[in-house]
């Protein structure tokens, strides 16, 4: 990442989409502040800011389901990160591989 100054922490946070490096599967979405972003860069493991607990957390520190960072990119506006990882174990706290395991039935919605 060459232009770290392009990263925008809106109200101190930036959303981070976490994607499996090999399969492309979207695993989760979390938020980073500058400190967690810098710790992620330093350790090559994902660190996030917990909005509910108001503290830093390292993905896998209690479960052992670490995320090893393989690539970080950011969108055209610099306000969203895409982090590709090697996921160890499930990404979701429910035990599911991905946090996105539930679908909305869109049949019957008006599609113009």
Compact overview of the structure:
The protein has 112 residues and is mostly beta strands. The chain is built from 1 helix and 6 strands, in the order ββαββββ.
Walk me through the topology.
Layout: E1 14-20, E2 26-32, H1 34-43, E3 47-50, E4 55-58, E5 67-74, E6 81-87
The shape is: globular
What strand line-up does the widest sheet have? 2-1-6-5
Helix/strand/pairing class, anyone? mainly beta
Uncertain ranges: none
Q: What is the string of SSEs from the N terminus onward?
A: EEHEEEE
Query: Mean pLDDT across all residues, rounded?
Result: 93
Helicity level? under 10%
Biggest beta sheet summary: 4 strands, mixed
| Computed Rg | 15 Å
What's the total helix number?
1
The end-to-end distance, rounded to whole angstroms, is 41 Å
Count of DSSP E strands?
A: 6
Strand content: 25-35%
Task: Describe this entry's structure for a reader.
The chain is mainly β and 112 residues long. Helices cover 9% and strands 33% of the residues. It has one helix spanning 34-43; strands at residues 14-20, 26-32, 47-50, 55-58, 67-74, 81-87. The strands form 2 sheets. Strands 2-1-6-5 form a 4-stranded mixed β-sheet, covered by helices on one side. A two-stranded antiparallel ribbon has the order 3-4. The protein is globular and about 45 Å long.
